[in-house]
């Protein structure tokens, strides 16, 4: 047996405790697969006294987290502290700078500082790995970085937030409204007390930006992810979608428009609730599951699905990274060296072609439908189907429509024509429809 | 740019031509991801004159395939000849023996000789890679060897044969019988003129045996895969299954019973038509698609899905292997060095617990149902539901039943009790039911 791979573990929340439990449970198996033992040398967290239901006695406790980066008896620092900046980033920079490999589950940090850290790691010839930062236990970073590496990826999309998917599929099953399901999800621990990052699409945006860089070989660009969450989706939207043959899923979607003489490539990145056709594999992904689709020019459609969060799945991904490092993988973290990634500008979405779902909450009086229809006509939006519903006991009237294929700009223009109209009782909701 | 990775390509069927097309199309992208160019030095096939719709002019033609293993200007031999033995195996052995890496899409050769070749490769410190041998373009060898490497895998199963899945899902959609759909599939090129390998489960067995070794760290054991195909499935079976909430899919299924003081571990490997519950992800996998599920103790259920065959997807997997090699991956082909794989005995299936579907084709006369029910009772089989159907215009009477959970041995005993009974117009059909 060769030299062990020695790790220092920073952050002992549920994921940190999960990693320790995994190494204690599957240690022998991990050793066989890694070709050498993976041992924990030191651990660090804010509160030493907290009971974490794992035996920390075998490991040295280190109060000063960042000092772990400088220990001679450590080969890899595992950062499970969280937060895009602050102590996590300080530790990550220190670890790589002092020649340690870094493994992290921190999607916010990678989305914001991944390229800087990758550049440092490439410079230093050490590994930087973040499988656990994207879609929990699903090996999708590996799938894109290596498995699909021979392909030009045409579209990359998926269900990237388990909380939102749990909420949407529960709304679908029960007919309940968003606010009630969110409350229930919070009570059950499926949603945070402050759910903003999840339900407004920011968490999914982090993952999408990381994957887009891997898939397209483009500079990671989280700032230009266009994110809309699921707060405004009504039970009635889900019902209308269902009657039209769709389910609603919050998707991250990315593609690239190649550059040319007129400038660099344009990267399209959007997190948005989509109407997904019932016969698409993603329509059957329910509960707190994640699923990623990469459509390659040679591979065709690849689907990776599994648990997107939780201590076990995330620990599985962290330790897979450690096994890779033990086996000698120190390749470019983003598949292509940072210096060679393509520069991108954000795509202009107005000329994108697609179908859309529009829902209007309108006053119950004559002429409203004519006003909507006229705005659509004047903006060049062609309507494929339309349902008017209500009013219910005291609810407003809803008008839901699906457009024919057309430019997104036309839909935007139609909404501008209607802006401020007294006929609208609430701002309209637009959702895109996933092309098969 | 560093030294190119130089490959020699043996076999220029659809997959071989696909690999050339991929390298010609995506060459620049492959170079960026691999960190160096991947160039084809020499090609070889039986018939030089054949038009393969790709430009072979840039490559040296070599009539003697095996001589490619000895060229000084070749780093990797890509074997796309096919066949478990013969020229493919001769070439593979020669390549590895002379210090070349080997990449192959040949599932039969790996299922039969994979461990021998892996042992040679480990000895010589060269790579042996076979992503394309299992499930076409889906990176499932990588998923098991690396992505799920931190897990003890509890069950491994999936849809491993696109031809069978095409036939079964078409039977489902059209209500047509097996023979008619097979004929149509042959006409459309979805099934071979001699479909035995596919429809009798041998091809799926090859893939299952390879994956089981990767997933469980056990010695590859194709000989003991218990394989049943789909020839005997009737449109009526699909109809009955549907009314009970299931679809029928040919699955490969494997798990391991740990060894103890009384002997080595026992490996369960079965290819069999299963009834899959409608709410299981595999129930929605239609057409010529493959899908593999690995259930890890930490990761939970991981699903990998995509095109299981075809020149594009297979080429995608072959070139992903080449990129891995270019990046320096020379690790153990089966994740664990061959010498350290666990020895196994085949599992005894009689004590396995599960539900089963049984279909009897019976004579239309009084007392037959009583005879069936008595046999079930006497063998200790408890019936959950039963449907008797027919006779149709001139068809026989069908009795389909689903058992409660019970030992497989009891079902076997029941069938033994009924063997030779004049009430049975045809041998009964047994299918297992996939546990969620």
Automatic annotation (TrEMBL), chains A, B:
Gene Ontology MF, one: homoserine dehydrogenase activity
One Pfam assignment: ACT
Residue ranges of domain ACT in the record: 357-436
Enzyme Commission number: 1.1.1.3
Pathway: Amino-acid biosynthesis; L-methionine biosynthesis via de novo pathway; L-homoserine from L-aspartate: step 3/3; Amino-acid biosynthesis; L-threonine biosynthesis; L-threonine from L-aspartate: step 3/5
Family, similarity comment: Belongs to the homoserine dehydrogenase family.
PROSITE patterns associated with the record: ACT, HOMOSER_DHGENASE
Protein name: Homoserine dehydrogenase
InterPro entries, per the entry: ACT-like_dom_sf, ACT_dom, Asp/hSer_DH_NAD-bd, HDH, HDH_cat, HDH_CS, NAD(P)-bd_dom_sf
NCBIfam families: PRK06349.1
Keyword vocabulary terms for this entry: Amino-acid biosynthesis, Methionine biosynthesis, NADP, Oxidoreductase, Threonine biosynthesis
Keyword flag Amino-acid biosynthesis: yes
PANTHER family membership: HOMOSERINE DEHYDROGENASE (PTHR43331:SF1)
EC class (word): oxidoreductase
Domain of life of the native organism: Bacteria
Originating species: Croceicoccus esteveae
